[in-house]
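REQUEST ID: PR-0412
SUBMITTED BY: lab tech R.K.
PRIORITY: routine
TASK: structure prediction, single protein chain
INPUT:
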Amino acid sequence: MSRSHRVTAQERTYAVLLQPEPEGGFTVTCPSLPGLVTYGATLEEARAMAAEAIACYLESLRKDGEPLPESDPATSPITERISVDLQPA
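STATUS: complete
OUTPUT:
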């Protein structure tokens, strides 16, 4: 009697930081995955490159027998820029 094994994909979700570059485009880092850095000329491309880089990073960990980092919590911090005017002293 033969048994078939079902392989199910594990979905992981990580927060990324998309930093606009002065010359254009976006550098992407992922705080939960140290050393992961990628770039995209547009936001859409940067997001796609981030997904590809994360997949490669996790596959490399898996091949090396390393544990995969847990997904970031759904309540990841929100980063915003807030400007204030300082009055002269």
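NOTES: The radius of gyration is 19 Å.
REVIEWED BY: pending
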